[in-house]
Amino acid sequence: MHINLNTVEADGAGQVLKFSLTPEDRLHILHPQQIVAFRGPSSSRNDKFMNISGMYRKKKLIKSEITGPCQFVAALPPGFTMKEVELTAESDLLYDFRHLFFYSDGVTMHTKIQKIKNMFITRDAVKMKFSGHGKIGLLTQGQVCQQELHPTAPLYVDAGSVIAYPENAHLELTVYGNHLASQHMNYHWKMTGHGPVLFQAGRENHRLERDVNDGDGLFKRILKEVIPFGNILIK
Q: Which of 15, 21, 105, 107 sits most deeply, having the most CB atoms within 10 A of its CB?
């Protein structure tokens, strides 16, 4: 399978994904409404209902199975990008199913139940582990960053920005910094272990835009920063 990714530079446009499949390829597209152009036999596209767990996690009813040979174009909205990941026998990352855009034949999925305390923060009872040989596509807000874990030196990552982490990782939900810093940050995962962590770098873009364009006076801005949860309580 060969995938070309091009970023459209037009004003306000998102990323354009160009897929080219050989006769041996088959992709499972979990957001088929993003397909805007297709070239190939009409029979190459076969839409199906997702299973119940897929409907719940993706909040979607339909997925598309597309077989080659064909080409098609998918468009992502502004602020979203897709990262292609090739699985190997050594892959042991756990993923949030909501980020999955596609997976190829040869990929199998296994559910991993989260700890109770983690369920309340992530609002998801399970993570997905992919195995086999093939490719998956991950939707992210902004660019994808990758950091290697260390067995003793913890890495703190915004809990809502984490896309994938190793199954062997030790996770602790926390905040860090001094008292003022801990009051004004999202929960973070304190992570140790071995292997890479993938996280998205654009989750807070809307908040930054709002802060930069904020027309509030100086006194109101100070109250928002000094009072715990001031950004929520003071409008």
A: 21
